[in-house]
Amino acid sequence: xxADEDLHRHALENIEQADALLLGRVTYEMMExxxxxxxxxxxxxxxxxxxARGIDAKKKxxxxxxxxxxxxxxxxxxxxxxxxxxxxxxxxxKGLLVGGLTLPLALAEMGLIDEYEFVVQPRLAGHxxxxxxxxxxxxxxxxVSRLEFGSGAVAMRYEPRK
Length: 162
Known about the structure:
By secondary structure, the protein is an alpha/beta fold. Helix content is 34%, strand content 23%. A hairpin with a 5-residue loop joins strand 6 and strand 7. Helix 1 (5-17) packs parallel to helix 3 (46-57). The radius of gyration is 16 Å and the shape is globular.
């Protein structure tokens, strides 16, 4: 990912529009290392610091069967992930923002994702993880919005077709 100001501001807007973040263990640990708390003076740009404050303050639900505990304004989700997510969705006012690779695949399999956002970067890598690899069924999507960034990245938002 090309980590520029526009993309971080967009991600922060998405975070602020959600009631909470729903993360798998790997994504939670990666985000915690990168964004928890304040950094030493000058270590982050102003926009990176704004992003860090936003994600730091947001409620987080972490799906994990291996973590013993979490902090960083987080709560562990164990057991039947489908039932837990359905309960969280029923309580939620603005919705949950999901991140990662493994958890979104599981939620897509269960039909629990109401909206997808894909950010396409202007870079060919030739390797790396494939989103939704192993999905057992097709999910037809309808484009609902598109946003282009100065970097050449494009954020496309889709809803599942009914």
